[in-house]
Amino acid sequence: MATTNSATAAARAAKKGEAKRALPSLAMSISVPLTLTMVIILIFGSGHKYRAMAKPFWFPPLWLVHLASLGSSLIMGLAAWLVWADGGFHAQSDALPLYIGQVSLSIVWYPLVLVIGSGWLGFVVCLVNFGTLLACYLRFKRVNPFSKDLVKVNLVWTVFILVQYQLEANPKTIVFKIVSNYQLNCELTIIMMGRL
Hints:
The protein is mainly α and 196 residues long. The chain has eight helices and no strands.
């Protein structure tokens, strides 16, 4: 009985020690990308060009772009920590470079779009960022299922930004394609229903 109690106490002490080591690494993995994003927002976030450009109603206000970028950094930091805590950066050797690339592309996007106002270059960076996020998603899901779910949030935000760029560049073309595809699908459905 005494050995069972001492074994349980030793297991509790070991878990407590692991938790104490995990908290500083969690704080670091979240605070570094969050701080970098915050510094970029403070330096380049005034967005005079973004405010001055004629935007359709579906473009988010600047404060929402800032908030979403901070949230994206926080979520990716947490996802990366979950992968690291499960030993994923050792098992998936390209997961860490992909994560660093994604954070870097997110940081580079800000001055390109909000300060310089380069829409096409911002679109290319956002497209590459999407590819990097997708690669992170594929690597992270092998290690920690919850981290892949966190990356999905960033994928949705990046797709939203990509659609914005496309709609800004070719609004009539995109809308026409959507309407044409819808009409084609309806016509095909009617034809198929007539044959049944």
